[in-house]
Amino acid sequence: MKVSYYPGCSLHGTGLEYGESTEAVCRTLGAELVEVDDWNCCGASSAHSANKKLAVSLAARNLILAKKSGLKDMVVPCSACFQRTKVAQYELKEHPEMFPEVRYDGGVNVKDLLSFINEDVGIESIKGKIKKKLTGLKAVCYYGCLTMRHPSVTEAKEYENPKGMDMLLSELGADVIPWSYKTDCCGGSLVLTNTEIVLDLTEKLFDKALEVGAECLVTVCPLCQGNLDQRQSDVSSRSGRNYDLPVFYFTELMGLAMGEKDVEKWLNRHFIDPVKLLRSKRLI
Amino acid sequence: MTATSEELKKDEAASVEAVSSQTEEGSGAGDDKPARPEASKRYKLSELTPFSDIISEISGETINNCYQCKKCSNGCPITYAMDIQPHQVIKMIQLGMEKEVLTSKTIWLCAACETCGTRCPNEIKLADMMDALRQRAEKSGYSVGSKRASVFHRAFLSSVEKYGRVYELGMMREFTLKAGGVIGKVFDGTLIKDAKLGLTMKKKGKLPLTADKIKGTGEVKEIFKNSQKKG
Fold first, then answer.
1. Inter-chain contact B156–A149, Cβ cutoff 8 Å?
2. What is the interface pTM, i.e. ipTM, of the complex?
3. Nearest CA to CA, how far is B131 from chain A (Å)?
4. How far is CA B107 from CA A2, A252, B59, B85, B129, in A?
5. CB-based contact (8 Å) between A269 and chain B?
6. What pLDDT, on the 0 to 100 scale, is given for residue B29?
7. What topology does CATH give the domain A2-114?
8. What is the CATH number of domain A131-280?
């Protein structure tokens, strides 16, 4: 299976380990990711605030490049990039007259990474690659906003209570705990302009995760992971509680279960050390 | 974004039309009728079009469909920090309270999580409406409700325009310098804290020191240029 791959700026920078783990597990699963040649930033989270035409045109350039590769599907792991690219497709279909300079006539199927792994790679192929069950790892799945909303754009079906990651991690052997905050907002890009709001929202997520007995959170989005991981020590020092909750990318846990050799390298890029927890579960 | 000398020109043109139509209407009026609005007053397009129509046009959302069920505000995670609640923003747009809305903090605090729009029974995507309000606020000449957010978006986009991708380090430097309050940040310790965070990111390989410049920067510049034209 061969698909276009749009990493976006985060997976080359602040979410480096998401990119590394995505590429590793896809390789093992036989899904060849072909990086879109000379891709540009999709504009998230600023272009849509400034100018709709700019936002749509920036994302459309990547669609045009993906189409040139001749591959039908384009996989986008970052939730913000995924949503902005879907918005571009939606706007170009609904209001083509607003974007006369954009030469994109459809034909690329945009997928978020979790849906791609669950639906196209398929749980059966993953089962065959599991070397170590994640037994005893108590986790809550945190999907965030942008692979889900707005459903008319993302085409997500279970946008209030998604289950794709819960099912996948259960297959990997993790103890997945249901909770009601799967798609609550972490504050996204407000982290730079209104940091306190992000600390408020993530503190609530940590509290709710602990309340149901979770020992870690698992994400699909580099903005969510960044806010929950890099700012957690600020939440701890502000509230006087030591949260110490590791925040994984779901691909890192897939890699761990599939016996990928670079798992510890990815995990060492985290701010809140996940290795300690995994050692206590004898998973590392 | 750059304000649109083009739009201002269009507004000018519209104002001329408005004057001439006023004059024509006025010419048929007899002396005994109450005076029409002064023919000499120059109207701007924005004065003649209801605020809700302007925002509906920019956002593509039918703002007047709202019947104030408040689902948007009830689901919004950030209302506690907002000066106007999302359902109130809509009502105020309908009432033409342009200045109050465009100078509010709310429009800059919306994180575009889209919980509101997803639950709206009238299918109003409030996040798109907030985008339209930010764009209008930047062009309005009113003082912007959150200078930091406005400066952030500019710094972000100038990085994309220059390199085709975001160069985090350069963007952060521009944002920190232009957002103001650097001296305050020195004294309250937040500058040191930001620098420490940056250093840890760099140590962990998450903060490239050079920009990841694409080959097609010319195409990206063209996209920025075209975005200023009306569709």
1. no
2. 0.95
3. 5
4. 42, 36, 13, 10, 9
5. yes
6. 43
7. Glutathione S-transferase Yfyf (Class Pi); Chain A, domain 2 (1.20.1050)
8. 3.40.50.11810
